[in-house]
Design a protein that fits this description.
With 210 residues, the protein is of the alpha/beta class. Helix content is 43%, strand content 15%. The protein has a single domain, classed as Nucleotidyltransferase, domain 5, CATH 3.30.420.10.
Length: 210
């Protein structure tokens, strides 16, 4: 059974009780929003199988989502759309999504643990944890909520824009997705600045090499 890692234990021992973990999903796709979640758990919570969402199966993530939501003191999910990503870049959009997720929690945390090397401004202390989704219980839980939420959004978008197979690639640059962009052009939810290199390579050669 996976329990709190030393990262959380250290802060609990320092007297913190409301620890928020936050993580994002969707930095790499060519389309759709970037989504972040934040979670606060009670100190002695136990959830079997919590881990980085990227290494969990769909069934595992869905089952864990139910347990995370039922056992969390508070949780929140926020999305930043493709238009904003194009305006402020994906890093800033990811940090904005995480900040909004934390700010939307129904309880104010005493400390915030953020996945990755960068943090956002907050009146609450913010700690960055590189590879936090594989080291930190609350961050890993947040990564699961964020990924499940974003995957559902992309499945919904697949019905509106069926030619891109978003239900299978979730907007990531798969061979099929890139070929569809080159054949039909981008749709409304594509991140236009993310497509620059695809079009540059097409102009440099007669065929796109994968």
């Amino acid at each position: 059974m996976r329990s709190f890692q030393p990262i959380e234990k250290k802060y609990f021992k320092s007297g913190f009780e409301l620890i928020a973990g936050t993580d994002e999903a969707g930095r790499g796709p060519l389309a759709g929003p970037v989504v972040a979640a934040s979670v606060i758990f009670p100190k002695n919570v136990k959830i079997n199988g919590i881990n980085d969402s990227k290494i969990l199966s769909l069934e595992q993530r869905l089952n864990l989502e139910v347990e995370i939501k039922s056992k969390a003191i508070a949780y929140s999910v926020k999305a930043i759309d493709h238009t904003t990503i194009d305006k402020i870049n994906i890093l800033n959009a990811s940090l904005l999504a995480m900040r909004k997720a934390v700010e939307s929690l129904k309880i104010n945390p005493e400390i915030i643990l953020v996945d990755g090397p960068k943090t956002f401004e907050s009146t609450t202390q913010v700690i960055s944890i590189i590879e936090g989704d594989s080291k930190c219980f609350t961050i890993a839980a947040a990564s699961i909520l964020a990924k499940n939420y974003r995957d559902r959004l992309m499945i919904d978008y697949a019905e509106t824009y069926p030619i891109y197979n978003f239900e299978k690639n979730k907007g990531y640059p798969t061979k099929f997705h890139i070929e569809a962009i080159l054949r039909y052009g981008p749709c409304e939810i594509h991140r236009k600045k993310f497509l620059t290199k695809i079009y540059e390579r097409r102009s440099e050669q007669n065929t796109f090499e994968f």
